[in-house]
Amino acid sequence: MSLRREVLIAIVGPTAVGKSHFAICLAKEFSGEIVNADSRQIYRHMDIGTAKPGKDEFARVSHHLFDIINPDENFSLADYRELAFRTIRDIQARGRVPFLTGGSGQYVWAVIENWQIPRVPPDPDIRKKLEERAAKESGKETLYRELEQIDPESATHIGHFNTRRIIRALEVYYTCGIPLSKLQTKGEPLFDTLIIGLTEDRQKLYAKIDRRVDEMVKCGLTAEVENLSKIGYDLSLPAMSAIGYKQIGLYLKGEADLDTTVRRVKFETHRYVRQQYNWFHLKDARIRWFYVDKDPYKEIKAVVAGFLNKGRDNG
Predict the structure, then answer these.
(1) Residues 76-88: pLDDT tens digits?
(2) How many folded domains does the chain comprise?
(3) CATH code at position 129
(4) Cα(220)–Cα(49) distance, integer angstroms
(5) Amino acid 2: pLDDT
(6) What angle do CA 35, 196, 26 make, to 5 degrees?
(7) Cβ(108)–Cβ(37) under 8 Å?
(8) Does residue 88 belong to any structural domain of this protein?
């Protein structure tokens, strides 16, 4: 019998569904540690708008790859993949279980499917021109349509809202003449992975998102965005295009009132959820889906226990 690969447990699903809560409980139960797979929670100083775990949550179990770069630093998918592999292997070497947790599809699948990502260096001139085009009225939509023509597969996965990744995909194409989706291939999986998917009735999830956005504003999202601007992070930075930050930035510039801003944040988050389901399909046989409103923790715990015990039994 061949030896089993080291194990990895992934907790995936749309924003606001409860991934962090379930991951913390499971990590506590099974001697695990959490590895972030959210492309916005990597940034320092961006806490409220990214729904980053709080101090109490961080204290319950070890968390990794949160707060690792500043909002004005370049950070590619290849950088994330390298850090994630290093972190996961370190957790495994210490006899603990890594829980890859987040809703950024590229991050999750780059690890699980062992994407082979070519190192295409940033081209400052191309990137600057693309960012200047994005800053113009309807510029982001124009860039997205351009990407649809050049690389429809990347455009479908990235979606309209992720300006940073749209620019990077175009930059890669204009640098080497090959679509990003053609450069990224899948290698041999490095881990034996259990993928737990959390989902919820769409309207219930939207209502939950709306309540969370209201709570973010109440807890100081406006002040957080204002502080980022004060300490030198321009609102035109790709990191600041994150949902919530972009809209609050326009409010701070006087381009929208607060009620309109909050509605826009909710609308864009709903749209983001629809995009996330393009990465995490409910019919994907690799993912064990659970509806959070059915109180599935005991069932999920049993699935995780069976998965981990399978390795011990085979050993």
Answers:
(1) 889 999 999 999 9
(2) 2
(3) 1.10.20.140
(4) 9
(5) 44
(6) 60
(7) yes
(8) yes
Same domain, 205 and 156: no
* Those residues with Cβ within 8 angstroms of residue 260's Cβ, 6 or more apart along the chain or in another chain: none
Tokens representing residue 59 in the block: 């204290």
Q: How do strand 32-36 and strand 63-64 relate by DSSP bridges?
A: parallel
Which of 138, 168, 183 terminates a domain? The answer is 183
Question: Which tokens go with 300?
Answer: 């999920």
- pLDDT at position 163 is 83
Q: What is the domain range of residue 145?
A: 124-183
Tokens of 168: 């990077």
3: pLDDT strictly greater than 70: no
pLDDT score of 289: 98
Q: Is 176 exposed, middle or buried (0-12, 13-18, 19+ CB in 10 A)?
A: middle
Per-residue pLDDT of 24-58, as tens digits, reads: 999 999 999 999 999 999 999 999 999 999 999 99
| Residue 1 forms part of a structural domain | no
